[in-house]
Amino acid sequence: MDEASNVRATALELTSDIERTPLGERIDSLLQDASMTPGALTVLTARTLGGDEFVEAAATRGVGVQLSYEGLRLARALVHDNAIWAAEDRTDGYIELLVSEVLVSRGFYHLARTEASDTAIQTVRRFARNQTRRQVPNFDPADLEGTLEGDILRLAVEAGATLVYPDPPAEAIAYADRLAEELDTTPLPDAEVALAGAREELRGITVSEATADRSATADQSR
Fold this sequence. Notes:
Elements: H1 2-14, H2 22-33, H3 37-50, H4 55-80, H5 82-86, H6 91-111, H7 117-133, H8 148-161, H9 170-182, H10 191-194, H11 198-203, H12 209-221
């Protein structure tokens, strides 16, 4: 999938300034192996709703979504990996923790001045609350506020859609919710599999007149 390759290449480029220490090498390895579904969905959403002119900007936003997800996913794994913290030498654990922090901070950097920034913040807050709830005695999964994968896919659609429209079309968010239910797995499938029908779904979105009017007004003011 072109969108996945685009996001992977952009992510490696935008993290290339990190020194090739164990930290930088681990980030490279993680990005080479990861499913690019979140970032690819951002690009695919912008491209389908607005055209190829939005691809470059969407790739940067897609990297923001992808890095945020990879950092949070790694943090979640570290919370549940007792072995890495029980080891006499915890160096690997500390490197993984640092990688997680760097990825999330880099992800937020690329989303900070976008219309999706508030949603990105809410995603991290929900993630933190969920991880805290998992640690309490007699934990009940029903107490969780959604899932990280679901929240990230919604963020991806919003980040892509708001490149084209000031407000994401309601049908685009509804599609993100459906996709989140379908792909609520860890790890996420590769983009080629996960987003097989995404282009057709996004092409069928009807944009309200109000949303279209706001988009036209925003274009005129640029």
